[in-house]
UniProtKB/TrEMBL annotation:
Protein name in the entry: SusD/RagB family nutrient-binding outer membrane lipoprotein
Organism listed in the record: Polaribacter atrinae
Listed SUPFAM superfamilies: TPR-like
Taxonomy, superkingdom: Bacteria
Length: 487
């Protein structure tokens, strides 16, 4: 017996492979998380962003998918994709960094928590109440059926998390992420600006449900320091990898590329808004099927027109792909400086923040300018000159009496491609004033959808928690309004 027990001494150590790490390096995990935040599959992105959200806000007319408009269709993709990729991995990375003794751990953890807010804010702004406090803890804590947190509680925690992260980042320090950080290469100052800019975004979401809270958080964000130029934009530059259908290539341009020339068209609503103002972005955002960007040749397709043909404009195939042109390595923008300037303009108009009401026009003009200039980041010779921008602003001058309308209409144009953000800001602001498609009369009681319903998989696998959430939220319809989306 003694001999047997002695032979067992050190058995566990002997059976650990010394050549394999017991834990992945945080930077490796962080790269994975950032890539999957944009989307792990262009098919998923195609359905929830292009077919549902971008068509809901009438950036596009997806002629081949008219049957999906204002229907549940494939509304589950974002939820299912994000929870199995980014959510569980960001929870794991956060847990790892919380107990790390590395000198860079506090900065890495702050950056991770800003990324976490980006991930969860995108999901909750589409679905409403979602798993949050228990999400991603299946492996860590054995939570297989996470409860759904109310959006009001999720927002409160996300804002507090951003405030704490910004406090850490503003004090300075070094991140270990370096080039593994695909957005800012570990630049702590830029992450601090992003944390405050996200805080401002979340604050503005709350204007209808908690204006005092919205003002308070907007003030903190502005005082903390938000983006100040296009050099601060939060984006990922993807790879030119023809064989990659997943996270290494831009999901937006891959989605456009995968469709036939007759399928994805610029909507008449969006095109008319730009063309009547002689907007130079027409020749950047749109092209004919054969790639001609001449302003005079661009025409939008009515949201109720299901005709599949070569007539009418597409998203510019020279920078977004399509019709045989393949653009894998285009950048994808999570938040731009232009968006921040428009929010500063609104904060100045509503509450006298950021320089007061006398600065509303200044912020508005800065937003329009930045929104036109950042498009050069797509490359391929895209550039709107200073003279063109000045001509546009002089021909379409800011009207103080229409401040909120003009600010948020420009936000609508500036977020082309990021349907989730366009959809959320349209719900929040009410601008532009969109007319529902004809099918709304029979499918959604004449309304444009306000959210996407929960996946059937949740109702099968996590039924108790999702049904409780549906009761608290007041329904699970396309037209069910979430906490911050009030009339």
């Amino acid at each position: 017996m003694f001999a047997l027990s002695a032979c067992d001494d050190g058995f566990e150590e002997l059976n650990v492979n010394p050549t394999k790490p017991v834990q992945l390096d945080p930077s490796t995990k962080f790269t994975y998380i950032q890539l999957y935040t944009g989307g792990s599959s262009y098919v998923a992105y195609l359905f929830w962003n292009i077919i549902h959200l971008m068509q809901n806000v009438q950036h596009l007319n997806n002629t081949s998918y008219a049957s999906f408009l204002y229907k549940e269709g494939n509304t589950h993709w974002l939820f299912e994709e994000q929870f199995k990729t980014t959510v569980k991995n960001i929870a794991d990375l956060e847990s790892q960094l919380e107990v790390s003794t590395e000198a860079t751990a506090s900065i890495d953890l702050a950056i991770t928590r800003v990324q976490k807010v980006l991930i969860f804010s995108r999901i909750t702004d589409v679905y409403g109440d979602i798993p949050y406090s228990e999400a991603g803890k299946g492996f860590l804590e054995g939570v297989r059926f996470p409860k759904y947190d109310q959006q009001s509680a999720i927002y409160a925690d996300m804002l507090l998390s951003l405030e704490n992260a910004a406090a850490t980042l503003s004090a300075g320090g070094t991140s270990s992420f370096g080039s593994a950080d695909l957005m800012f290469s570990g630049d702590v100052a830029k992450w601090n600006k992003f944390a405050n800019s996200l805080m401002l975004r979340l604050a503005m979401r709350m204007v209808k449900v908690d204006e005092a809270g919205a003002k308070s958080w907007a003030t903190k964000a502005i005082d903390g320091g938000v983006m100040t130029s296009n050099a601060d934009i939060a984006y990922i530059q993807y790879e030119n990898s023809a064989n990659d259908g997943g996270p290494n290539v831009n999901p937006l341009t891959k989605g456009f590329t995968s469709r036939a020339s007759t399928q994805v068209k610029i909507s008449k609503t969006f095109m008319d808004f730009m063309k009547t103002r002689n907007d130079p972005r027409v020749s950047v955002l749109a092209s004919t099927v054969d790639g001609n960007t001449d302003f005079a040749l661009q025409f939008g397709q009515d949201i109720n027109d299901e005709t599949r043909g070569d007539a009418n404009s597409k998203p510019n195939i020279n920078i977004f792909g399509g019709s045989g042109t393949i653009i894998y390595d285009a950048p994808f923008f999570f938040q731009t400086y232009a968006e921040v300037e428009f929010m500063l303009a609104e904060a100045a108009e509503r509450w006298g923040l950021s320089g007061g009401t006398s600065n509303v026009e200044t912020h508005y003009n800065a937003g329009v300018t930045a929104a036109m200039q950042y498009l050069s980041m797509y490359g391929h010779g895209v550039e709107i000159t200073t003279a063109e921008i000045d001509t546009y602003l002089n021909s379409n001058p800011f009207v103080p009496a229409q401040a909120l309308k003009m600010i948020n209409e420009q936000y609508w144009v500036a977020t082309f491609g990021n349907g989730l953000e366009t959809f959320s800001n349209w719900k929040r602001s009410g601008y532009p004033e969109l007319v529902p498609a004809n099918v709304a009369a029979t499918l959604t009681n004449g309304e444009i959808p306000r959210r996407l319903p929960y996946p059937a998989s949740e109702k099968l696998n996590n039924s108790v928690n999702v049904e409780a959430a549906i009761v608290l939220q007041g329904g699970d319809l396309l037209t069910t309004r979430m906490w911050w989306d009030k009339k």
